[in-house]
Automatic annotation (TrEMBL):
It comes from the Bacteria. It holds the Pfam family HTH_17. It comes from Bifidobacterium breve DSM 20213 = JCM 1192. Residues 5-38 form the Helix-turn-helix domain. This is Helix-turn-helix domain-containing protein. InterPro entries: DNA-bd_dom_put_sf, HTH_17, WH-like_DNA-bd_sf. SUPFAM superfamilies: Putative DNA-binding domain. Coiled coil: none annotated.
Length: 73
């Protein structure tokens, strides 16, 4: 299963963007669905669980957001 999971850095490289962009998208509810691996922290503690993306879902998300051209302004 680990081959089917991508780190944020892996997915960012695949999409040609910064891992920070993915982090921003996660915080605003945008971008592809992701998993948090590990034990949930107690209330009031920082969440340091590992973020992973399922390869197949991330690829489907990327294809669904593919555009041939944009409208000229």
């Amino acid at each position: 299963m680990s081959d089917d999971l991508l780190t944020p850095a892996d997915l960012a490289a695949m999409l040609g963007m910064s891992p920070r962009t993915l982090a921003n998208w996660r915080s605003t509810g945008k971008g592809p669905p992701y998993l948090k691996i590990g034990v949930e922290p107690p209330e009031g503690h920082q969440d340091r669980r590992k973020v992973r993306y399922q390869r197949q879902i991330a690829e489907k998300w990327a294809l669904a957001h593919k555009y041939q051209r944009t409208v000229a302004r």
